[in-house]
């Protein structure tokens, strides 16, 4: 079997070859009073389909193909590649033999017929496709997203491997709440009945007694692999982790998921400036990889109500990112509000607030017209592990904001002083016992180190222009949604 990506890539050079292809029917059309079939077949390897022409006299299996039900059916085709007289395609296949692997069946009566195939029509809204997540990769947009995700994941490994980083596998079940935001999904599993017959975890003085739980303590799904990858960075210098993370934030927005993938590099002997440089290089590398390796898919996304997408992406690759102090950002936003240019839902823009996405987007879309690296945030709105600056008020944190999305990367230099770290942990109410091991990384050969986390789905949104995060992950998990 030849993949369509390769076959179509060969173009006119493939004319004369006998090939075998297999895939799913996008459309099936009868002509010549039913004596000819035109089938658009796609195998997911690329956006384009190939036209397969079948004749009642020339194609073995013609009758079965005619009765396959049309869109959605799966076929194996053997035939000769010929030049196509049709517009927008160089080659097509004259089918010598067709095998129907699976026809498209109807509903309860199961009469053959494409009319019940949920993706039979050519155009579906993203909302409709979401309700068919199990068939969504058959749609053009669904498959383009998967190919883009694949290219970006590959580019991620390529980027870090080329720079000598080690890929570290951090756990998904954890005891630590890295971000301290209390947004963890708890993992509660009772030991098998021979150990404990109680249907529920027992309570002591009204509080759950986790000692009877599987792990003998409260455990959660990780919100970030950072604390674990730090242990390796302070032993092996340049590391990264790339895996799923989970957040039980009850925010029904177009940029939040309960389960998302995160890339988290962590580097020893590095400062905030090094961290920012790495993040900028990495983001640019990924965007350039998408432009170059997913050219057809990006052209398709651009054509789906996303004018100028590729030019915007090229500008991201070619233009240095603006660096901006948090304090400066607040005063810029205040000035814009005062001048009547900026109208925000949240008008409380004062030093100390955590910026909302409307503020982040305003800075990137209206003021700087491109990505912005925001640095040195107030310590009270950031996690305990970030390095305290000399002013005692801000931390060496950085967020990278991009147009249409807002925050895509969050990172910082880490606190390397044991005393300051302990103080900060105490002030946010962390149990010292819980982070004892983390403190020990500062006790034995502490080094300046820094890292960041990039939300993979937000990167896919950036490169595709797709506006809702639910449409860039195969099986989105959001409040109330865990079907499929
Ligand atoms: O800013 P965050 O919370 O940073 C961390 O988790 C750090 N521990 C990372 C590090 O320094 N190693 O999250 C990092 C990024 C955000 O910038 C955003 O792109 C993405 O993760 N993100 C989400 N993406 C989708 N859905 C959510 N609910 C997200 N929360 C964060
Ligand atoms: Mg953040």
From TrEMBL:
<dbReference type="GO" id="GO:0005524">
    <property type="term" value="F:ATP binding"/>
</dbReference>
<keyword id="KW-0648">Protein biosynthesis</keyword>
<comment type="similarity">
    <text>Belongs to the class-II aminoacyl-tRNA synthetase family.</text>
</comment>
<dbReference type="GO" id="GO:0003676">
    <property type="term" value="F:nucleic acid binding"/>
</dbReference>
<keyword id="KW-0547">Nucleotide-binding</keyword>
<dbReference type="GO" id="GO:0006421">
    <property type="term" value="P:asparaginyl-tRNA aminoacylation"/>
</dbReference>
<dbReference type="GO" id="GO:0005739">
    <property type="term" value="C:mitochondrion"/>
</dbReference>
<keyword id="KW-0436">Ligase</keyword>
<feature type="domain" description="Aminoacyl-transfer RNA synthetases class-II family profile">
    <location>
        <begin position="147"/>
        <end position="474"/>
    </location>
</feature>
<protein>
    <recommendedName>
        <fullName>asparagine--tRNA ligase</fullName>
        <ecNumber>6.1.1.22</ecNumber>
    </recommendedName>
</protein>
<keyword id="KW-0067">ATP-binding</keyword>
<keyword id="KW-0030">Aminoacyl-tRNA synthetase</keyword>
<dbReference type="GO" id="GO:0004816">
    <property type="term" value="F:asparagine-tRNA ligase activity"/>
</dbReference>
């Amino acid at each position: 079997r030849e993949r369509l990506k390769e076959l179509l890539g060969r173009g006119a050079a493939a004319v004369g070859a006998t090939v075998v292809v297999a895939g799913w029917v996008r459309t099936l059309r009868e002509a010549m009073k039913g004596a000819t079939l035109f089938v658009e077949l796609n195998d997911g390897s690329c956006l384009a389909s190939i036209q397969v022409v079948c004749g009642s006299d020339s194609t073995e299996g013609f009758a079965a193909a005619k009765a396959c039900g049309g869109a959605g059916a799966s076929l194996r085709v053997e035939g000769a590649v010929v030049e196509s007289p049709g517009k927008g395609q160089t080659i097509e296949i004259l089918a010598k033999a067709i095998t129907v692997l699976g026809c498209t069946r109807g509903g309860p009566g199961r009469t053959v017929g494409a009319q019940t195939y949920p993706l039979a029509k050519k155009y579906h809204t993203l909302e409709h496709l979401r309700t068919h997540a199990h068939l969504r990769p058959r749609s053009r947009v669904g498959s383009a997203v998967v190919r883009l995700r694949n290219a970006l994941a590959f580019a991620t490994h390529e980027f870090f491997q080329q720079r000598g980083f080690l890929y570290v596998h951090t756990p998904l079940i954890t005891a630590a709440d890295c971000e301290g935001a209390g947004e963890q999904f708890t993992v509660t599993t009772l030991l098998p009945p021979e150990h404990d017959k109680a249907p529920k975890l027992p309570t002591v003085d009204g509080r759950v007694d986790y000692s009877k739980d599987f792990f003998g303590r409260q455990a959660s799904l990780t919100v970030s692999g950072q604390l674990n990858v730090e242990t390796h960075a302070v032993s092996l210098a340049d590391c990264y982790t790339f895996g799923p993370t989970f957040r039980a934030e009850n925010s029904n927005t177009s940029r939040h998921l309960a389960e998302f993938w995160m890339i988290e590099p962590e580097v020893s002997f590095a400062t905030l400036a090094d961290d920012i440089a790495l993040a900028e290089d990495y983001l640019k590398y990924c965007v350039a990889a998408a432009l170059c390796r997913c050219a057809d898919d990006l052209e398709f996304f651009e054509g789906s109500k996303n004018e100028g997408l590729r030019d915007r992406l090229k500008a991201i690759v070619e233009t240095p990112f603006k660096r901006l102090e948090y304090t400066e950002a607040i005063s810029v936003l205040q000035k814009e509000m005062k001048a009547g240019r900026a109208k925000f839902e949240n008008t409380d823009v004062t030093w100390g607030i955590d910026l909302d996405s409307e503020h982040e987007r305003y800075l990137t879309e209206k003021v700087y017209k491109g990505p912005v690296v925001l640095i040195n945030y107030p310590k009270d709105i950031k996690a305990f592990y970030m390095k305290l600056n000399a002013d005692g008020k801000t931390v060496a944190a950085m967020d990278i904001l991009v147009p249409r999305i807002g925050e895509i990367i969050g990172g910082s230099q880490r606190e390397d002083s044991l005393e300051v770290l302990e103080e900060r942990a105490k002030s946010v109410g962390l149990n010292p016992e819980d982070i004892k091991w983390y403190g020990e990384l500062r006790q034995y050969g502490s080094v300046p180190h820094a890292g960041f986390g990039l939300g993979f789905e937000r990167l896919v949104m950036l490169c595709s222009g797709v506006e809702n995060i639910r449409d860039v992950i195969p099986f989105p998990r959001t409040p109330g949604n865990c079907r499929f």
